[in-house]
Amino acid sequence: MTQILVALRGVGKSFKNGTLALSGLDLDVKAGEFLTLLGPSGCGKSTILRLIAGLEKPTAGYIERPCPELISEVGFVFQEPTLMPWASVFDNVYLPLRLKKESRAKAKSRVEASLSLVGLSAFTKAYPRELSGGMRMRVSIARALVLKPALLLLDEPFAALDEITRFRLNDDLIRLKQELGTTVVFVTHSVYESVYLSTRIAVMAPRPGRIVKEITIPTDLPRNEAFRMSPAYGALCVEASKSLQAAMTQGAYGEEAR
Question: Which residues, at least 6 apart from 186, have a Cβ–Cβ distance to it below 8 Å?
C-alpha cells in the first residue's frame, strides 16, 4: 500500500485582506508519485505548496504528516530562480548547507554532486548574470536537491522559459525524479506540461481553490519525444483540458459562475 506523506483534510486558507484562497480542500501526497496541481492563475496552487512545506498554516481543516521521518527534508523551487547575484553558482547551491552550519569543505562533495545532477559541473565558479534563464533554473533546482529532499515542491519553475528550454528541463526533471526517487508536487497552468510530467494530476477550480477532478497517468508510459507525439498523450491532454474547462465554469462551492 502506497504511503501518504502529507494529507490535507477540509483545508481552507483565508488571508488578512479577506481573500479566501482555498476552501474544503482534500488532497493526499503519496510517496514516490509525481503530483501536478493544474489550474488557472489565482486558484491557490502556490498556497497549497506553502501549506505542504509548512510555510503557511491553514485557517480551516488540518494537515497530517503520517510519516514525518520520511520527509525530514523538503526542497522548494520557486517560479523565479531567486539566486544571490553576488555569489557564485557553487555558493548559491551551498547556501542550504551553510544555513545548517555545515562547513564549505565538508559540503563540497554534496554541492558538486548536486550540480552534476543538473549538468552544471563546469559552471561552479560562474555567476548568475553569466547564465541563461534555463541554467539559472538548473542552479535553483540543484540548490533544492543538495539537501537530498524526500519531497520536492516546484512552483511553476519553467513558466518564464521558452518552449525548447522548457521541454529540455521537463526531461531533466523526469530523469532526476527517476534517479533520486523523490516525491514531487509540481504546480503549472499548462495542460501539456502536466500530462507529460505527472503520474497524477489534480485539477483545481477557481478561487476559492479546491480539487474538482483527479486524472491518473499510467506510470509505465515513456516520457520522451515519442510520447509527446503519441495518440495516448493527445487523448490525455484532451481529458485534462476538458476537466480544466469544466472547472473554470464553476463558481464558489461548485455552483456555476454567473
Answer: 34, 35, 36, 37, 154, 173, 194, 197, 198
pTM over 0.70: yes
Cα gap 64→96, rounded to integer Å: 25
- Which triple of cell numbers denotes residue 81? 530562480
Residue 237 buriedness (CB in 10 A; 0-12 / 13-18 / 19+): middle
CA–CA separation, 120 and 102 (whole Å): 22
pLDDT in tens, 158-206: 988 899 999 999 999 999 998 888 999 999 989 999 999 999 999 999 8
Q: In what order do the strands lie in the sheet with 20-30?
A: 20-30, 4-14, 60-64
For 55, the grid coordinates are: 510555510
State how far the Cα of 49 lies from the Cα of 128, in Å rounded to an integer. Answer: 26
